[in-house]
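[job 4417] fold queue: 2 targets
>>> target A
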Amino acid sequence: MSPEPTAKDPSTAPDQSHWSPRLWGTLLVLCAAMFLDALDVSMVGVALPSIGTELGLSTATLQWVVSGYILGYGGLLLLGGRAADLLGRRRVFLIALGVFALASVLGGLVDSGPLLIASRFIKGLSAAFTAPAGLSIITTTFAEGPVRNRALSIYTTCAATGFSMGLVLSGLLTEASWRLTMLLPAPIALIALLVGIKLIPHSAKEENHRGYDVPGAVTGTLSMLLLVFTVVQAPEAGWGSPRTLLSFLAVAVLLTLFVRIERRSPGPLIRLGVLRSGSQIRAQLGAMTFFGSYVSFQFLATLYLQSLLGWSALSMALAFLPAGALVALSSTKVGAVVDRFGTPRLIAVGFGLMVVGYALFLRINLDPVYAVVILPTMLLIGAACALVFPSLNIQATNGVDDDEQGMVSGLLNTSVQVGGAIFLAVVTAVVTANAPEGSSPQAVLDSFRPGLVVVTAIAVVGLLITLPGLRRSRSRDSVVVARSVPETAEDRVPVRD
């Protein structure tokens, strides 16, 4: 009997230019998990009004239907990424996907707010393990270069496609029952799990002779959980309130303790030396500003279209559809574009498109012509997402050893989620501060504009972060990824920005 295939088999094959059905199947299973993560986030946002009405939830409680997922996802990504490296990527991915399916069923059957919020937290927790494990399976299965770039462009495209389809599907399903929006991911996750058991290659666990970094795992997870919780609650509690300030102080103390532990640990949860790479830092900060600006824009655009203009959930979803369609149609092409131009150029161009798109949305009025006022922004944002998100994933994982792919994947996903939580809270605070005393539609519209200016400014910051990478790309310098042990010739890893 032939031995079980391992994650290294495909990547060590002499030719991966023509993917086998098994390799395609593996990629599709991983894409399904990414698709579900994005689908779940967008669907619940549209269904919130119906959930609140049926379960009798207050606005503050209803917020936690969304925030509970963000808390579990953003707070446990670092742990999820390292767990994939240490316990086996396949095992972590499949177990977490099964938990996601069960939590989806639970969320669709509950009849109380606390149970619904608990199911959302469990789903976020499971996604915190499937996301970095799935990304690291790809980066250790597909050889670095054009083959991996193509796989990552398809994989990351599924997030945007899932988000766009979630908006449309939720608009349709909520008409029947909000419970359908909770239940829909369950059968998809179950099918992906069954197929994944058969197709996903076994991966050897990292040889762990240095023990498990339990103190780092505890302090790192607690700091991320508290950070996300504090940011989510700050708009309601007040940014200058004693509660918020003390929470931020506690986060700073925990992060300081976490860094000290990681610097001394023989087997750290996060090897801090990886952050000495300029390419890695730009990828992490770029992910924060990219997702932070987009989720904030989507929040404001939803308020504008549904609350102010009175559009239905389905009409609003269709308004966003061109952006998602553009990303989906470009999924198989982005990898080749990355091969030709490199990630820094594509990220810079993408951020430039986002800046223009957000700035154009400042023209909104109380009687907009969709094709003239809204559609150009959607198309520009769609093009930006198609360029930026795959490029950030490629840049973050290039030049990283296989036994640290889960760690870097968890770090990147943490940047995405924390960036989204922080910048959304900031934009919400700006809009709230400018909220009119009266209720005239024009006054409400005017209160949105400062928030849109902040969204545009976040995208500008993302563009500025990318620019140094353009200079390094032109000079073709290599980047030293420092390790926590004395440097040897093997520690000098050339990384293409």
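>>> target B
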Amino acid sequence: MSKDSCDGCGRTVTVSGGIANIWSFGTDAGTVGTAMTLELDDGTSHLLCYPCIEAIPDYPTAEDIERLERVDDETSRLGALSD
């Protein structure tokens, strides 16, 4: 698995798939990791950890991703709207 950081809160995340899972022979392929890349309706894509995915609204925008902040190891939230 490769390591990267969440586009929302900056947590270090692992992304499943790719060359790191070549020896798994399909066992847990694509199911082990702490983040997913989401493609939004506005055409942007973002690598988000699962706590950030839980914090975003049903139809998120890039502005929602920018507002994400880490609360603790298991929780993220949307920060205040900037003017």
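[job 4417] complete. Note on B: The first strand starts at residue 2 and ends at 5.
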